[in-house]
Amino acid sequence: MALVNLQEILKKHDGAVGAFSTYDLFTVQGVIQGAEEAGLPVIAMIGAPVLNQPGNDYIGEILVDLARRASVPVCIFLDHAKDYATCMKAIRLGFSTVMIDGSHLSIEENIAITNKVTEAAHSLGVSVEAEVGALAGLEDGEEVKAAKMTNPQHVAQFLAATSVDGLAVSIGNAHGLYKGKPNLNFDLLQEIAKNCEIPLILHGGTGLSREQFAKGISLGIKKINIGTEVKKVYMETFITTHEKNVSAWDMIAVPQACKNAVAAMVKRELEFFAAGWKTMC
Ligand code: 13P
Fold it and tell me: Is the sign of the CA dihedral 123, 126, 127, 131 positive or negative?
């Protein structure tokens, strides 16, 4: 149907849209298949460290190609780029949205790099996500030890000085597996949302509860990122399917099972983010 950017995909939606990390052909196919089975829009992401692996431009090209052929709107998204060059690479590959992650910088430096990327991206119809505050945890091999909760005053300063299409926040969410029960600060989210006209984004979706997703969406979260769960579903399916018939070394059935398992998870989450959450509020 259509390759769409972040602004377009979030505008058409009254709940939240799921954004899923991809790593190879089968995760890419699984994410798009799950969205088609749900009949819902989806955001397919690739992390900057993954795209920057030698030879991995092809995964970006496959994402863009499959998005164009999909029967539902698909946003192809570069996740957590820390530099201008990676954003430009993704844009050259045809991505519809890039995230410039200046969360490790001072607020002034974050504004400066975000504006540089946004100027180029918007001139080509590409949307931009940014982050204020920083998440702890491990994502695509990159670790942040301590979180910086999002400061609402920094959000106001950031939004006045930039024109991004979505803003990721740090409210107790973390990348990777949570150590103990995740504890989200919804008062802080409410405070941020009060003066924020653009969609808010929740990273670190793996391990959050249905109640937490529903509360977040009710307070203005429009995009929810899921990464570790994609890897977990894929790898667990790989191991169990392979172990059923080890001597077959089945390079047809095993990856197909992984793809289908990713698709089933994506369908379930998309349906909850789009409508299921309303039954919990
Ligand atoms: P999880 O790996 O914790 O689901 O987080 C994914 C993410 O936020 C990608 O940006």
Answer: negative
